[in-house]
Write a structure and sequence with these properties.
Layout (H helix, E strand, L loop, with lengths): L8 H11 L8 H8 L14 E2 L5 E5 L8 E7 L5 E8 L10 H9 L3 E2 L4 E2 L4 H7 L7 E11 L5 E18 H8 L7 H4 L4 H22 L10 E5 L2 E6 L5 H24 L3 E5 L6 H10 L10 H14 L4 H12 L3 E5 L26 H14 L8 H33 L7 E10 L2 E6 L5 E6 L9 E10 L4 E6 L2
Helix pairs in contact: 1-13, 7-8, 9-11
């Protein structure tokens, strides 16, 4: 995409991918391999396949998303339980291990979303077509079942393969506004018989899950990651995505689905990959951060106490909460993938307040989910694991690094997009909040637009959380620089 000022943001995104070790384009071998799949319906299907096409499946995703990985369906059961089925796209059916497509995906590890260009894990013909759970199409899927109990805990159920058919492709914002009572029932919902009641039951189920996890100490964090909005080939604004009940629904359902997948693989007694956020090494830093707000946290890591502190701060100061969230995220440490051997105590996920967790619900977008899918199929088919423990350990380390580098690309492009947006505002002043003040520099976030930059003049004495007035000095989209001076 070329901006009106002649800045080629697509080229910047491409170079950023290469800088951080990704292959931004698909090799010819991959493209030809995927083209050859276009006429294949369900190749090499083996084992028991159930037919669940008649169920009222639906998906909720971004408006422009076509690489649909998940469908959901609920039923009310006796004793106040809600039975949940989550359908996951069967990507392994078409991407064979060590094929050119598989090797390319293993190298990149994840789709990368720059806001300007999306670099998908797989070619569109595959991820947005053949494997995508698009409405009205019969698709093979992995089904994950679990029961949500009246108190909000869940009981893992069966995991198997089935045929499914999506009855409605729904959008986060539209469904979220309806859930919050801001808009009437969306037309796409009322057009499908029974879908309104189905979604209302899904909302009830997700609220149970959310409430229970918060009681256990799940952390409600809200880091601000503005999205570049492009219209007619130009960046016109930055938008801070707003969380809504529809997004929480999918998040809550997938956490339970991933826990169920871990339980199934654990029962089978094979090595697996878990998604981990360890007990924080820098808990003392978290305690010091809380003390800045005149709050006292226990001397030892306590997820529930931290969760309650964050809830209070979000209510007291929502404007600064994203900056506090970012500080806590850095002190918690990043997530990682680790191999778990049979019988080994699980690592746990401190931020989600769950013990058993992996990534298995987005195989079109994350390579580790494809690995988990292959492990499951080996169990269902009574075959040896397709991966040795050493191979899983090597992949876990590599994919952790790939995710970290993907985050760098996405952050770089958010800054580059903001730099382009602000190019015509040199010399203007903005209200801002100081988000960082270390020996490496002092940084601020503008209130409008929510762009971040460095204070390069007059920064002495500024402190985190301070409200300031800054003047824009320069922008450099190619280096993702936005420089300010403090004016009061």
């Amino acid at each position: 995409m070329r901006n009106s000022a002649g800045i080629d943001l697509s080229a910047i995104a491409w170079h950023a991918m290469e800088k951080y070790g990704f292959e931004p384009g698909f090799p010819k071998l991959v493209e030809s391999e995927v083209r050859a799949l276009s006429g294949m319906k369900f190749p090499n299907v083996q084992g028991e396949i159930r037919d669940l096409r008649s169920l009222l499946w639906s998906s909720i995703d971004n408006e422009d998303s076509l690489d649909l990985d998940q469908l959901e369906y609920c039923e009310r059961r006796e004793n106040g339980e809600i039975h949940v089925r989550v359908a996951i796209a069967d990507v392994d059916l078409y991407v064979k291990r060590q094929s050119p497509t598989d090797r390319h995906a293993a190298h990149n590890g994840t789709s990368v979303y720059t806001g300007i260009v999306t670099f998908p894990l797989f070619p569109d013909r595959l991820s947005k077509g053949i494997t995508s759970l698009l409405p009205g199409e019969d698709r093979m899927a992995v089904i994950i079942e679990y029961a949500i109990l009246p108190d909000g805990d869940f009981r893992p159920g069966d995991v198997y393969r089935a045929l499914v058919n999506n009855k409605a492709k729904l959008v986060y914002e539209e469904i979220g506004d309806w859930f919050e009572g801001a808009t009437p029932v969306p037309q796409i919902v009322s057009d499908v018989a029974g879908l309104e009641a189905q979604l209302s039951l899904q909302l009830e189920a997700s609220l149970r899950l959310k409430r229970y996890r918060m009681e256990q100490g799940a952390l409600e964090l809200d880091t601000l990651e503005p999205r570049v909005v492009v219209e007619e080939g130009r960046i016109c604004r930055l938008v801070a995505p707003k969380k809504n009940p529809a997004g929480h629904l999918i998040e809550d359902f997938m956490i339970a689905a991933n826990g169920t997948m871990v339980a199934r693989l654990e029962k089978a007694g094979i090595p697996m990959v878990q998604r981990v956020v360890r007990v924080p090494k820098h808990w003392d830093g978290i305690v010091e951060t809380a003390a800045m707000y005149h709050e006292t946290l226990p001397s030892e890591p306590d997820a529930k106490a931290l969760s309650e502190f964050l809830i209070r701060r979000k209510k007291a100061d929502p404007e600064r909460f994203p900056d506090l969230s970012l500080t806590i995220v850095k002190l918690l440490g990043r997530g990682e993938y680790l191999t778990l051997e049979p019988g080994q105590a699980p690592y746990g996920h401190f931020g989600l307040a769950v013990t058993h967790y992996t990534h298995s619900t987005a195989p079109n977008r994350r390579y580790v989910d494809l690995i988990i899918q292959r492990l499951l199929k080996s169990v269902l088919n009574g075959e040896p694991s397709p991966y040795t423990s050493d191979e899983l350990a090597e992949l876990s380390s590599w994919l952790t690094e790939r995710e970290h580098e993907a985050n760098k690309v996405e952050r770089f492009m958010r800054k580059a997009g903001a730099a382009v947006l602000l190019m015509d505002n040199i010399g203007e002043s903005f209200d801002a909040i100081v988000t960082g003040a270390t020996e490496h520099g002092t940084y601020v976030r503008l209130l409008t637009p929510p762009a971040e930059g460095k204070v390069v003049r007059g920064e002495d004495g500024l402190y985190v959380g301070q409200e300031v007035r800054v003047r824009l000095l320069r922008t450099d989209p190619y280096k993702a620089f936005i420089d300010f001076e403090w004016v009061g």
